[in-house]
Amino acid sequence: MSGPAGPVAAEPTSLYAAQQKIYPREVDGRFDRLRRLAVWLLLGLFYLLPWLPWAGRQSVLFDLPARKFYVFGLVFWPQDFFYLTWLLVIAGVSLFFCTALAGRLWCGYACPQTVWTEVFLRVEYWFEGDRHRRIRLDRGPWTRGKILRKAGKHTAWIVLALWTGLTFVGFFTPIRQLGAEVLALATGPWESFWILFYGAATWGNAGFLREQVCVYMCPYARFQSAMFDRDTLIIAYDPARGEPRGSRARRADPRAAGLGDCIDCRACVQACPTGIDIRNGLQYECIACAACVDACDSVMDRMGYARGLIRYTSQQALEGRGTHVIRPRMLVYGALLGLLIAGFFVSLALRTPVGLDLMRDRNALYRTLPGGRIENVYLVRIVNKDTRRHRYVLQAAGLPGIVLDTDAREHVVGPGDVYSVAARVRVPAAAAHGSQLIRVQVRAVDEPRFAVEREARFLGP
Fold first, then answer.
1. Which residue from 273, 267, 268 is spatially nearest to 104, judged by alpha carbons?
2. What is the 3-state secondary structure (H, E, C) of 392-416?
């Protein structure tokens, strides 16, 4: 570009807007109370579970060095890893079920980001006041009062974040021992690193990033629409009732003025933790926390209008057609989820705290012994998954005259130990023809219900 005085440089244009801090308005209503209840329950479980004793030990402890995972009265070993996979599948199907039923219900009430952000916001309210006071405080100069309020808030945040990091590590290291080490400043390098890491992550995510985690970092917001249909319950504004929007006196008749029920007060926008205007339709930033519903209902109460201008509803209902909660998608998700949960608990109930592995001796297919007997040798591994030591015996069945022999009649296996022994299985030559199936059983002498059986191949001439 050129001008009378020569070329004029074009001013640079930024393609990215600066992030505007969101100041969610504090609301009160039935969904806010439900959200607070969820926060209390979830954080109560998280912070208290490691401190609860159970049978002389910590109730929930994932002891990685010892490869033991204690969950109340159950003890899991690396051989039980498939239970974790099972739980993850249940969690995934549960997420699909809840999303198809009521949108981002998980995000609004149970997601860790939402839960800890809710707590950090409450701390911010206590130190800096309501929405308008926080805005004025941030825009005002740095005074002694502002420094004290900010310092108090961040001190409380850091204490809560470090306590969160300590509690998280306490699920993997006995928390009473860990607490004593922290007080004595004697924690090991790994414990110190993870406490500080998770503390810093909590402080940063819940104190500063907040809605940016949901909007920019969480992948769930991107693919949630694949699980929606027109009968999914969502947070929605009713334009047929609310439009045209506009301000009016409290006693004015909106119909006479040609207005809908929306007074354009923007209370729903101010209450939204992600800063969206729900009146513009469903947006991927919406986490279905229903804060806008509580805000709008309080305004409707003051105006004397019916509640529900913003509510849980579906696209079908907004268009004047009924919502179908029971539909093929819900039946499939519900049936699959029910089967997975039932199977999981049945498997836990039938779980035997003893494992048995068999491996044939590869040095010889079989041996012919004096007296006309055929012998196969197996390496037997007995896994004691119980918290007490047990005495085990081995037996074989499946062929006439079969005998199993080891160097000792009983085998003592300590808690969590893997015990290996060579087992010699002998069968009369008349019954040993080619490859045949046999059964090998291990049974605890002092606890007969602790028994498990495996099949193996017996080879003969």
1. 273
2. EEEEEECCCCCEEECCCCCEEECCC
What's at 371, amino acid-wise? G
Contact between 290 and 272 under an 8 Å Cβ cutoff? The reply is no
- Listed in order, the ranges of the chain carrying CATH 2.60.40.10 are 354-459
CA–CA distance, 313 with 233 (Å, rounded to integer): 5
Q: What is the pTM of this model?
A: 0.83
Cβ contacts of 363-372, under 8 Å, gap ≥ 24: 365/459, 366/432, 366/459, 366/460, 366/461, 368/429, 368/461, 369/426, 372/428, 372/429, 372/430
The token pair at 202 is: 């909590």
Residues in the chain: 461
Phi, psi of 110 (to 5 degrees): -125, -10
Rounded-to-integer distance, Cα 395 and Cα 425, Å: 9
**What's the CA angle centered on 331, arms 329 and 333, to 5 degrees?**
70
Query: Which of the pair, 447 or 118, is modelled with greater confidence?
Result: 118
- Name which CATH class applies to 354-459: mainly beta
Backbone angles phi, psi at 340, to 5 degrees: -65, -45
Rounded distance between C-alpha atoms, residue 242 and residue 350, angstroms:
57
Q: What are the tens digits of pLDDT across the range 99-139? A: 999 988 899 999 999 999 999 999 999 999 999 999 999 99
How many whole angstroms separate alpha carbon 123 and alpha carbon 152? 10
Peptide bond into 244 cis (omega under 30): yes
Q: What is the pLDDT of residues 190-225, one digit of tens each?
A: 999 999 999 999 999 999 999 999 888 888 877 777
> φ and ψ at 426, to 5 degrees?
-120, 140
Return d(Cα 346, Cα 139) in angstroms, integer: 59
From the list 384, 406, 387, 385, the residue with the least C-alpha distance to 395 is: 406
Q: State in Å, rounded, how far the first CA of the chain is from the last one.
A: 97
Does residue 167 sit in helix, strand or coil?
Answer: helix
SS3 content of the chain, % helix, strand, coil (to 5): 45, 20, 35
In whole angstroms, how large is the CA radius of gyration of the chain?
Answer: 33
Residue 5 has pLDDT above 60, yes or no: no
d(CA 393, CA 411): 6
